[in-house]
Amino acid sequence: MNQLHNLQSLKAFNTFNIECTAEQFLSFDQLETLQNICADTALKSRISLILGGGSNILFTKPKIAGLTLHNCLKGIEKVAEDEESIYIKAFAGEVWHDFVEHCIHQNWAGIENLALIPGCIGASPMQNIGAYGVEIKDVFFELEALHIATNEIHRFKLNDCQFGYRESVFKRRYKGEYIILSVTYRLLKNAAIKTSYGAIQQELDSMQVGAVGIREVADAVIRIRRSKLPNPKELGNAGSFFKNPSIPIQQAEDLLKTYPSMPQYPSTEANAKKVAAGWLIEQCGLKGHREAHCGVHHLQALVLVNYGEARGEEVFQLSQLIIDSVFNKFGILLEREVNIL
Ligand code: EPU
User: Fold this and answer.
1) What is the mean predicted confidence (pLDDT) over 277-298?
2) CA-to-CA dists, residue 27 to 24, 37, 64, 70, 73, angstroms
3) Cβ neighbours of 270 (radius 10 Å)
4) Closest Cα to atom 23, ligand 1: which residue?
5) Which of 58, 73, 74, 303 could form a disulfide with 297 if both were Cys (CB 3.0 to 4.6 A apart)?
6) Ligand 1 center from residue 74 Cα (angstroms)
7) Catalytic-residue membership of 337
8) Residue 105 and residue 19: Cα distance in Å, rounded?
9) What's the chain's Rg over C-alpha atoms?
């Protein structure tokens, strides 16, 4: 920790479990270490990658040139409280699901629907993580990030982050400019349970629990996720490989005439509908499809998996086959959600 290493394998640092070597590598759990790096002009110019949990990344090259930083800043603190809310600050290297469990244990509500999402706190605002009707933007209060160029800590409020569907300013305008240090969430003392996402209510019914609180909602989400999403510790993957695309309303209506069972949802984009990429891929006959060392998961077509020895390039080629197949059948262009390096 806090020491520079040469030629470090990143296989254990990405949930796809893909082999790749970092030319230089440093895990830091001290802010001071990071600030010393950013005070050294030559060293900081070599920073090429910031890794957290590595759960949304596909390495397609054998080597990452320059310096890879692994963010291991730890700590969870209550920073403020009012009648309704708790403001809780978590450092970037904390494991997301452990944080969710910590909050549930304290009876702090708001992130129970986001149980079991792989990755660390630092990535949560980066791509506005979301599942089962909740996104991080719904509970976000502020974050602190180190501006690499000036070595200054900047604070970002909700409106500064430009959150969208799996989007934020850190993936766009400020890409590569900041290292997220900590995130403060505003959680509620009195839960407003969200079970509107159909599968949750169904799961709660089948669990036959009496009163439904945040523990039960989290348990329902955990059961749903375990039933169809592969555990990255057993089968390398990065969750949903593609975004659910938004398409023009007219195209959505035309498609419904041919495919009446096509799932469609409201979109945040104007005059558009969101459609389920997993369904599109399944309709192309690709659910469970396997190439030599990688494939499309047999229970959730939006997830690509590494059967053990896949190279990133093979997974990338499989993703291109999927994009082409969906485009040829539906005229819809899928966009990758996973960061390709
Ligand atoms: N579907 C199929 N076949 C499949 C997969 C899905 O027909 O192989 C259909 C389902 O039957 C359902 C619809 O597609 O009608 C949506 O499926 P699901 O509820 O499983 O969710 P998703 O749209 O595939 C999104 C997120 C997930 C998140 C779930 C639950 C994206 C890209 N993915 O998946 O997030 O957990 O909703 O909210 O938005 C992630 O980002 O890594 C992730 C796992």
Assistant:
1) 98
2) 11, 12, 15, 4, 9
3) 8
4) 276
5) 303
6) 31
7) yes
8) 37
9) 21
pLDDT in the model for residue 191? 87
Q: Which CATH number does the domain 76-188 belong to among 3.30.465.10, 3.40.50.20, 3.40.710.10, 3.40.190.10?
A: 3.30.465.10
Confidence at residue 198, expressed as pLDDT on a 0 to 100 scale? 76
Q: Among 58, 201, 273, 302, which is best to mutate for testing ligand 1, by the most ligand atoms less than 8 A from CB?
A: 302
pLDDT for 210 equals 86
d(CA 192, CA 323): 38
Atom of ligand 1 nearest to the CA of 238: 42
Identify the CA nearest to 334 among candidates 312, 304, 297, 308.
Answer: 304
Per residue in 192-231, pLDDT (tens digit) is: 999 988 799 999 999 998 899 999 999 999 999 999 999 9
List, in order, residues 6 or more apart from 168 with CB less than 8 Å away. 125, 126, 127, 128, 161, 162
Distance CA 111, CA 109 (A): 6
DSSP annotation of 335 reads: -
Q: Which is the closest atom of ligand 1 to the Cα of 129?
A: 41
Specify the CATH class of 236-340 in words: alpha beta
Q: What secondary structure letter does DSSP report for 205?
A: H
Smallest CA separation from ligand 1 atom 11, residue: 279
Predicted local confidence at residue 262, as pLDDT: 97
Predicted local distance difference test score (pLDDT) of residue 183: 98
pLDDT digits (tens, 9 = 90+) for 65-82: 999 999 999 999 999 999
pLDDT of 217 reads 97
Q: What type of residue sits at position 322?
A: I
pLDDT at 260 over 90: yes
CATH number at 5-71: 3.30.43.10
Both tokens of residue 164? 């969208």
Pairing verdict, β 57-58 and 21-28: unpaired
